Fold each of these.
Amino acid sequence: MTSELSQQTVTLNIANLERLLQPPQQRGKRDTEGTGRMAIPREQTTLRLRPELKRAAAAAAALQGITLGDLIEQALVDYLSK
């Protein structure tokens, strides 16, 4: 029983490692013409958020089919337009 469990654990760990070593997948359609969200110049910044706030924002973004960065950008645009 123990050797079966160990074998399953090793198999799962190897599968996870292989998945992690693969290049990240492109989300959505590739923008080869520069007409999508990357057509607008952007700057990178770092935010420090409470873990629960980040999880909630990431979940909301996933439900909308957008990135966390897009969700944060839209929230800033909405806030600053008031």
Amino acid sequence: SVGGDSLAAALRLVAPNGAVVSYGNSSHAVTTFDVDDFFPKNGARLVGFLVLDELARTGSATRDLQLLAELAAQHKLECLVSEVGSWRDPARLLRALEGRQVIGKAVMLID
């Protein structure tokens, strides 16, 4: 969920026929990029992604979640969890998320 210089760098570095997927801009930074760096990438594209629209299109996220779980189990997908807490007391985790103090994922344990 980036914009600004990070998104501009991704557009500069994307491989030919590759895709940069944007699902937000939490920094609210305006993105400016040099088209001369992007258009020669032969088929590269910038894709806007909204989870709810994708769920409406596919009808389910089951296949995607299954694939992610399999990749994580095979250690092919790194899942950085930096905060863990009980769902009975979510305030600490919610404050950390709101304060942008979480690097990676925050997990609430159902206990």
Amino acid sequence: MPNCQKLLAIAGAIGNDEFNSELTDEFEHLKHYVNAYLWDEASGFYYNRSRDGQLSTVKSIGVYWGLLKRTTWGSQLSLRAIT
């Protein structure tokens, strides 16, 4: 997701907006997926999901990238989510 934002910034800097709608759509799709499928309401944390569809029970540093890049939804952005 951060790559979409970086590419949009680069495109703006060089005056090329050819792919802006695709990048924006990709960012929104990924943001929705992360919040819909990687969030565990019971623990208040984002987890990886395995190929069989089960959420991992191991907390990962990767969750913090979503918080830093503002891909989390307001209701999930709480102290409980980052502890």
Amino acid sequence: MVLERSVEDTAAQLRADGTRYLHLMLPFVREQDALFDDLLGPLKFPRRPLAAARFGLPTLLPAATLAQRAFSGEQARSLTVGLFPFAGRHNRDGSLH
């Protein structure tokens, strides 16, 4: 499994989970400039509120939970956990999500 520069090329490696991976990742790639401006700049109402909401909603779940619910294969699950910045949050028992 290799993370490609193209979302489509990465999805092609994920076989059965490829379509789900595209559904999850393509909106972020398509709206990346607006998301970067809205999320990394000064606090303000987002220029593209729906894109910001679509980005924010999955981050409410721990990465492992999102990956378990979204994908059936271990490659897609592992990739998703590795991509999300909140993957390092800890459970109450000290283990990683």
